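Example 9 (inverse folding). The structure is encoded as follows.
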């Protein structure tokens, strides 16, 4: 901060983007983030918490499916998912400001503890055999509000823990752990426990995992808030938005961040139960198996990405929705269980490239003092796009079935991906 009380301007290139120096590009050196104790603590807490989140992905649709008419399942599941994302639309930017002001480990502990409390309410509902479905929507809103503060804090603290050469691998391994647990281990556990034991047991498992995750986050070292000067919240928020607006690269990365929610995550989350029961004609326990196949593809691909620096990362990122769309469309057409599993595994690499590189490139382009606020905008793109994806999926699925919905959404995403590939400067990032 200079004598005027403002953050000094970064040198900018001919496009108005903050110029990335050699230290902001992939470096040769110690790239192993596990040498840092705080990173190990953060990763352990992240994985345990993600397991709890993953259990919810599988068992909440099962909870809803047992309490509504079969014809209303798509609308009810989509409704719960939309309500879960709506608080983030209004709170995520505030969550980014809070993440720059409050010690990360305390914020993460409190947010995860609230999520564990929500899971405990589900335990009571299922144990009491409550047949009404409306509590799901209220609980979904609480979960969404918690995520608005948890995600910027969890993502924003990472660059404080590791060195610049370790950052990309730190992001990849963190995403690998979170997504493997959240998309593979958690849903598989939830689907199997909910299908073979009971939903009460599955929600109890989720409660225990989230409570343990909250405690583990306290094991992270103490990091001072990034925004040392306490100003009006609106002033801090305005500074973050101006920073984002000043970089075409950051804007391009944020536009791409909206793609999964609209075209890919929506169909998978809303339609998966319908595909299992109506298309593949399999028992509900297969919900966990299919989510697990997708998570396994992401996990292995993310692991391979850590072995060596990737060339032309921006181009790889921009191509991933273009090439992943046709594979998702084939999954929508599949009526064989074995083929559906293989196709979900095949989608994993494209999802891994997108999730890992979008976050790593964004953090490399962002100064630490505004990291929480930029991560808040990044999270906001997901929470704004997700309700759109859930709504369009529910509408098309209700009218034409889950297969048509999945295929149409995937192909539309691929076409729009081509447009963004040409239009955005992201493809030039190294």
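The amino acid assigned to each position is listed next.
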């Amino acid at each position: 901060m200079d004598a005027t009380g403002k953050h000094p301007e970064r040198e900018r290139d001919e496009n108005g983007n903050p110029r990335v120096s050699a230290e902001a590009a992939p470096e040769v050196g110690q790239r192993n983030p596990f040498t840092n104790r705080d990173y190990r603590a953060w990763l352990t807490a992240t994985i345990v918490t993600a397991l709890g989140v993953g259990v919810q992905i599988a068992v909440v649709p099962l909870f809803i499916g047992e309490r509504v008419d079969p014809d209303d399942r798509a609308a009810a599941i989509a409704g719960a998912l939309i309500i879960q994302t709506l608080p983030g639309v209004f709170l995520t930017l505030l969550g980014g400001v809070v993440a720059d002001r409050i010690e990360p480990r305390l914020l993460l502990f409190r947010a995860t503890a609230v999520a564990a409390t929500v899971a405990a309410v589900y335990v009571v509902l299922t144990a009491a055999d409550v047949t009404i479905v409306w509590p799901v929507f209220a609980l979904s809103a609480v979960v969404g509000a918690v995520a608005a503060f948890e995600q910027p804090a969890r993502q924003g603290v990472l660059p404080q823990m590791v060195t610049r050469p370790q950052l990309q691998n730190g992001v990849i391994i963190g995403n690998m752990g979170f997504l493997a647990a959240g998309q593979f281990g958690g849903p598989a556990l939830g689907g199997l426990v909910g299908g073979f034991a009971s939903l009460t047991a599955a929600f109890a498992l989720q409660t225990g995992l989230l409570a343990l995750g909250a405690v583990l986050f306290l094991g992270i070292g103490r990091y001072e808030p990034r925004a040392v000067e306490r100003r009006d919240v609106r002033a801090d928020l305005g500074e973050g938005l101006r920073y984002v607006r000043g970089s075409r690269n950051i804007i391009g990365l944020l536009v791409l961040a909206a793609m999964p929610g609209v075209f890919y995550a929506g169909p998978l989350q809303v339609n998966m139960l319908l595909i299992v029961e109506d298309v593949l004609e399999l028992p509900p326990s297969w919900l966990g198996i299919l989510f697990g196949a997708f998570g396994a593809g992401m996990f292995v691909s993310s692991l391979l990405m850590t072995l060596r620096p990737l060339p032309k990362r921006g181009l790889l990122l921009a191509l991933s929705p273009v090439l992943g769309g046709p594979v998702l469309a084939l999954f929508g057409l599949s009526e064989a269980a074995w083929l559906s599993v293989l196709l979900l595994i095949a989608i994993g690499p494209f999802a891994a490239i997108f999730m890992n590189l979008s976050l790593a490139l964004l953090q490399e382009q962002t100064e630490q003092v505004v990291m929480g606020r930029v991560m808040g905008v990044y999270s906001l793109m997901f929470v704004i796009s997700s309700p759109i994806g859930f709504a369009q999926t529910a509408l098309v699925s209700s009218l034409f079935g889950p297969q048509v919905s999945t295929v149409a959404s995937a192909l539309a995403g691929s076409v729009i991906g081509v447009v963004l590939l040409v239009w955005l400067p992201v493809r030039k990032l190294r």
